[in-house]
Give the backbone structure.
Amino acid sequence: MTTAELDQLSINTIRTLSIDAVQQAKSGHPGTPMALAPLVYTIWNRVMRFDPEDPIWPNRDRFVLSNGHASMLLWSALHLAGVKAVNADYERLGNPSVPLDDIRHFRQLDSKAPGHPEYHWVSGVETTTGPLGQGVATSVGMAIAQKWLASRYNRPDFDVFDYHIYAVCGDGCMMEGIASEAASLAGHLGLDNLCWVYDNNHITIEGNTRIAFTEDIAARFLGYGWNVLRVGDANDIDRIEHALQVFQQTNGRPTFLVLDSHIGYGSPHKQDTAEAHGEPLGDEEVRLTKRSYGWPEDAKFLVPDGVREHFAAGIGMRGAKTRRQWTDRLAAYAVRYPELAGEIDLMQRRELPTGWDRNLPVFATDQKGLAGREASGKVLNILAQNIPWFLGGSADLGPSNKTTLKYEGAGDFQAGNPSGKNLHFGIREHAMAAVVNGLSLSKLRPFGATFFIFSDYARPSIRLSALMELPTIFIFTHDAMGDGEDGPTHQPVEHLASFRAIPGLVTLRPGDANEVVEAYRYVMQLRHQPVVLALSRQTLPTLDRSKYSPASGVAQGAYVLADAPGANPELILIASGSEVSLAVEAYERLLQDGIKARVVSMPSWEIFEHQTKEYRESVLPPNVKARVAVEQASTFGWERYVGEKGRVIGMHTFGASAPLKELQKKFGFEPDKVVAVARELLAGE
Ligand SMILES: Cc1ncc(C[n+]2csc(CCOP(=O)(O)OP(=O)(O)O)c2C)c(N)n1
Ligand SMILES: [Mg+2]
């Protein structure tokens, strides 16, 4: 067979595997894989530097399928390229990442060919996609990461990091706001290592895009400062390859490649229709379509002889060669620059350098105290100096979030200064969260920040962070009513409850400056869990730790901060964040009145739930039923800790606009109120 014939055979293999898998599952999206098989074939077999033997090789090119519903493209590519599996400890396992049998079980339980690309589940998937727009936005984080890594680690004669990022997207991704935010940022930053290929097929679920989407997309991307290319025929792999070469030669701008395609290509009755998007073709149409490809009509899941070999000769050979060259280069680099090479190695395993926690502050007792965000700012500035690859920024609230890295040499990440550690996301919270995910997927240790209320604008990407099991850090300040006069538009209420409801996410709301330090100490050691830190705007008293328990209790999620005489309480006050010192004040008064109270500081439900039953019951003894929880947030969920007989002092409205003191009075966050509720409870009222 000629090379051209092998190319076509490979493309049709991707198409028919996709058709068969969807038909077998009786669910899925055949049309886009049929249309984009030539594109994916070209990127994988002709262009990408990716070694199937080692899908986590640090300098590999990245491939992101942002239109995640077309997942069969990825499963076909991973299968045909012979990509090998890796486990969560980054060990190379040697078995195929996506066996053919799993493609036969597309969308079934435990299959390595699930409905959408899932990062933590299938090796070779660079990021989880499915919620449209997330993939392309995350790819911007990957591109920022590559620039940062190159600027820190590359040396004359040693290009340690020079990879490219390819993202494929459709109309849906282009309509989603997050993609616009991310494209705007990528254009500003001039990320010329980034190429988005837009599947311009004019079809979405409800029909032709003329019903809802008629703008000039190319003009939009020109406006963002991207280089815009067009290939008018999605079957023309030479033109596609040429366009990707143009991308590689383009400096100073990201590339947007508009690819005109026909959804359901080759299907006599379904091509160019919305039906091809998300329904199996049907047995008869499958036969007709295969006939149009010149494929055996009754063959199912057929990988003809020569196809795997063709991939082995393409991506296999190229990937192995480039990885070998890189490994040799890195070995020589490690001799010249042992420290830098050591960093690269640690980073890949998500480990921390020795001394990562040196100089972390200990805050002295202080009734006036320090705001959570202030303490956080001090800690961030130390951590960023101890951990070279710890970096981040805010969505235009750095001065307010106190997330700006101010030490000498921290620098701002910009097109002309890719070594900067302060990222300026602009007022783009959603893209920020996705970019932070992209940085984390690139093994940097990132944080992103905004006001807690605006976490609403970032939540879909935070959810994906948890789904992907990434150790990202989201720093949210102004975590309750502390911003007073800004009023209910700025006062988070249901946010803690909603983050506590996300599986795998750690939500932490420290109660004083030393709890902030301990929170970071805990967070930094996580390797597979994202964290939401909720920090106060206003000052919080720094508690006397010689009188009360040490803040290291944060690592247990909840701990006995102040106890009743003889550790034998009749009442438990539970609080988080700004309400911890309030609970302590109430406790002192109750104690004076002879009431045996205990204060439990509970910065994190999730961490607490992971402690032994023994520990949990030592903190919240089951026989002590008189419990009051105090938190300036929705009371939703607190029943689990206060029990049927307990009480919760929390929020039932959106708050109000007024100075903080008045709000505390109005909504009952005062010692008098806590004492009164405690007394009522003990009196059995
Ligand atoms: C955020 C989000 N909203 C809605 C959906 C449901 N959905 C999946 S695919 C799709 C249509 C996408 O159209 P397009 O991107 O043009 O894909 P094509 O059919 O051309 O492959 C929709 C609405 C989704 N996955 N994510
Ligand atoms: Mg479309």
Remarks:
- Residues 71 and 483 are 45 Å apart (CA to CA).
- The pocket of magnesium ion (ligand 2) is lined by residues 170-171, 201, 203-204 (CB under 6 Å).
- The mean pLDDT is 97.
